[in-house]
Amino acid sequence: MSGPNTNYDPVEVTPLSPDEVARMRDEALAAIASARTLEELKEARIAHFGDKAPLTLANAEIGALPPQARAEAGKRVGAARAEVRRALAERTAQLEAERDRQVLLTEAVDVTLPWDRMPPGARHPVTMAADRLSDVFVAMGYEVAEGPEAEAEWYNFDALNFPPDHPAREAQDTLFVAGPKETPAEGGPGGTGGPGGTGGTGGTGGPLSSGRSGGPLSSGRSGGPLSSGRSGGPLSSGRSGGSGVILRTHTSPVQIRAMLSRPLPLYVVSPGRTYRSDALDATHSPVFHQIEGLAVDEGLTMADLRGAIQSFVDAMFGEGLRTRFRPDFFPFTEPSADVSMECHICRGASARPDGEPCRVCRSQGWIEIAGCGMVNPRVLIACGIDPDRYSGFAFGLGIERTLMIGHGVTDIRDTIEGDVRFSRAFGTEI
Ligand code: DAH
Fold first, then answer.
1. What is d(CA 418, CA 128) in angstroms, rounded to the nearest whole number?
2. What are the residues whose beta carbons fall under 8 Å from the beta carbon of 275, sequence distance 6 or more?
3. Ligand 1 pocket: which residues have CB below 6 Å?
4. Does position 18 have pLDDT exceeding 90, yes or no?
5. 78 to each of 22, 23, 59, how far by Cα in Å?
6. Which of 11, 180, 292, 408 ranks highest by number of CB atoms within 10 Å?
7. Are 344 and 362 in contact (CB under 8 A)?
8. Distance 165 CA to ligand 1 centre (A)
9. Tens digit of pLDDT for each residue in 331-346?
10. Ligand 1 binding pocket mutation candidate from 330, 368, 378, 393 (most atoms within 8 A of CB)
11. Which of 248, 270, 292, when mutated, tests ligand 1's pocket best, judged by the most ligand atoms within 8 Å of its CB?
């Protein structure tokens, strides 16, 4: 162990000379001042204040000095290190403040930005119209009924008394999903024209299936109709095998579903999507919507049908517009009619010799709005309902068409293109 070197002069020891200490200090201060980031400052700290920094090493030399030299050298080095320490602390504070300011700038959330740039979603005008139309009938005591869009051909056509060769079944009009299943013509279940268990029929069976007796349908529906339906007529269409599957061409198959599954009396309304293989143009769309109404009760007459239609027109287009029935033909109603209402814009004035032309009714004074009629007894029979006891009326109308008439929409494509500018005009009702 060697004691302090009594001959040791700090001025002679280069690292401890005032000039050298000042140089090391200045170098440290310059490095600290020029550090532009906390990272650079950390490097400057290690280089000038760390264990191997010149001033640290110089400080370590002080112990080896003779006592009389130690105080002076200690003061000099101590003052220099204190200055460096202070400079480090100041620069650290500066750079930290700088960093915090930068973080605030780059990670800032501008709370003044508009929060409602994304408008709230809204239901489509067709949906709103379907709901409004349904509401009118619900208010009269009707229930809402539904059916599948991919429908058994049997429900869409056969049960509605469309003969097998009816042109509406043609591929030009109907979109086919699947052909009929091959099943034996006689004897097997569904072998005589029933839906034969095809998709979506829910196993209700065709009109002739044994599933018909019993259950809710048996009330008032026992006896004859089922057997009379069995012999001949369009319902036993001669097509063996089950029913094919199509995209329903109208909402009328829901009539059949309702009659087969609900107790009598029956008052239902059924809005929904329908399909036809039409090319898209201003007045045709392969996808559109209809709403169907059906009432089956004892003693219903055409007067009840007229009353229901008039109430509907009053509710949708305002009171005071007359309705007109003209003979028409639908296989599932007898008699059938097409319904027109007085034009809600010109109120018939445009049809008079001196009247201003009207674009909405094309100066006819009347606008066709629906097809309707008294349910054909054949259809009641197909559903196991006794036509001697019950009668019914039905109607169907296009939802887009009603929307277009009511709001002066001239191009049906507007209802399917999804342009929000079209929808917005109807309001953002949720
Ligand atoms: N289903 C018919 C169509 O799409 C419309 C229709 C007519 C429905 C008369 C009915 C009705 O319920 O009775 O053209």
1. 15
2. 149, 175, 247, 248, 249, 286, 287, 288
3. 250, 252, 292, 330, 333, 371-373, 394-396
4. no
5. 12, 14, 8
6. 292
7. no
8. 19
9. 999 999 999 999 999 9
10. 330
11. 292
State residue 91 phi and psi, 5-degree precision: -65, -35
Segment among 15-19, 160-164, 364-368, 426-430 with least mean pLDDT: 426-430
Q: Which atom of ligand 1 is nearest to the CA of 249?
A: 4
Q: Are strands 176-178 and 245-247 parallel, antiparallel or unpaired?
A: antiparallel
Average pLDDT on 229-243 reads: 42
End-to-end Cα spacing for the chain? 93
Residue with tokens 């002069």: 9
Query: 419: buried, middle or exposed (CB in 10 Å: 19+, 13-18, 0-12)?
Result: exposed
Q: Which two tokens stand for residue 7?
A: 């001959």
Query: Structure tokens of 279?
Result: 């090319």
The two tokens of residue 395 are 């109607």
Per-residue confidence band for 6, with pLDDT thresholds at 50, 70 and 90: low
| Measured distance CA(392)–CA(256) in Å, rounded | 12
User: What is the token pair recorded at 401?
Assistant: 């068409």
Distance of alpha carbon 250 from alpha carbon 44, whole angstroms: 83
The DSSP secondary-structure symbol of 210 reads G
Q: How far apart are CA 366 and CA 343, in angstroms?
A: 5
Angle CA(395)–CA(396)–CA(402) in degrees, nearest 5? 125
